[in-house]
């Protein structure tokens, strides 16, 4: 990447931090700008024409999905709007551009029988089984959380009196979702198992992670072994099930 573009991107990242944008958003914007810089062979991003920016978006459309191109479009629009506010450019090269059209695809629903098979695989007495059962049950609730929301949950995010979980979503937005009796039972059992785990006392150092990547201990070989048996790879979405 050229030195001039590195300066532009670093300055923009500082602005994102000042505006308290999420690290994931900042990383996505940075990746987009790095890709654009590479696409234009290091030319100054603030001197690009509309045609050059459109060429990059077209390249993403041809090599990736329309959704990816739409995401890159939004990231670049935010960058050039910042450049206009900072008076680095008189007008955005994207001022009259329109975003790529994204056709919504129906999300397949996982059959109840497949969910029952998956839950059966999590019926063991080891530590991971109640954890995985709680995750699956939570994903079966209406308004089920994203993977990133589950990974970010803490012990304090579960209200076992009102049967609610607190989720921190995209853009720092907080939402509450209620859960049913079976999910509540699964969360209760997991919290008991978690509390008894020898590494649980270390969790305050990791924000009390409840169900995510740092949720005490995991066995990667066991996690991989589960998937082929129940077809987890085909389960793109689970919602509003009561297996």
TrEMBL record:
GO cellular component, one term: cytoplasm
InterPro entries the record matches: CB (IPR044068), DNA_brk_join_enz (IPR011010), Integrase-like_cat_sf (IPR013762), Integrase_catalytic (IPR002104), Integrase_recombinase_N (IPR010998), Integrase_SAM-like_N (IPR004107), Tyrosine_recombinase_XerCD (IPR050090)
A Pfam family of this chain: Phage_int_SAM_1
Subcellular localization(s) per the UniProt record: Cytoplasm
GO molecular function, one term: DNA binding
Region (Disordered): 198-243
Domain of life: Bacteria
Keywords from the named record: Cell cycle, Cell division, Chromosome partition, Cytoplasm, DNA integration, DNA recombination, DNA-binding
GO terms (BP aspect): cell division; chromosome segregation; DNA integration; DNA recombination
Protein name as catalogued: Integrase
Organism listed in the record: Micromonospora tulbaghiae
């Amino acid at each position: 990447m050229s030195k001039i573009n590195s300066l532009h991107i670093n300055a923009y990242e500082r602005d994102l931090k000042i505006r308290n944008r999420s690290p994931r958003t900042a990383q996505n914007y940075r990746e987009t700008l790095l890709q654009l810089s590479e696409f234009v062979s290091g030319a100054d991003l603030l001197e690009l024409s509309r045609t050059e920016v459109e060429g990059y978006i077209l390249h993403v459309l041809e090599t990736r999905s329309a959704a990816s191109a739409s995401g890159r479009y939004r990231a670049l629009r935010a960058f050039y709007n910042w450049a206009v506010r900072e008076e680095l450019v008189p007008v955005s090269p994207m001022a009259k551009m329109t975003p790529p059209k994204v056709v919504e695809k129906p999300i397949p629903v996982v059959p109840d029988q497949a969910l029952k098979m998956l839950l059966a695989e999590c019926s063991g007495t080891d530590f991971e089984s109640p954890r995985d059962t709680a995750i699956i049950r939570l994903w079966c609730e209406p308004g089920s959380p994203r993977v990133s929301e589950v990974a970010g949950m803490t012990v304090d995010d579960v209200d076992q009196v009102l049967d609610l979980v607190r989720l921190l979503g995209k853009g720092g937005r907080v939402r509450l979702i209620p859960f049913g009796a079976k999910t509540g039972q699964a969360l209760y059992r997991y919290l008991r198992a978690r509390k008894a785990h020898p590494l649980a006392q270390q969790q305050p150092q990791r924000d009390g992670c409840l169900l995510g990547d740092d949720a005490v201990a995991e066995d990667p070989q066991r996690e991989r072994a589960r998937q082929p048996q129940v077809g987890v790879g085909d389960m793109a979405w689970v919602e509003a099930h009561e297996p």
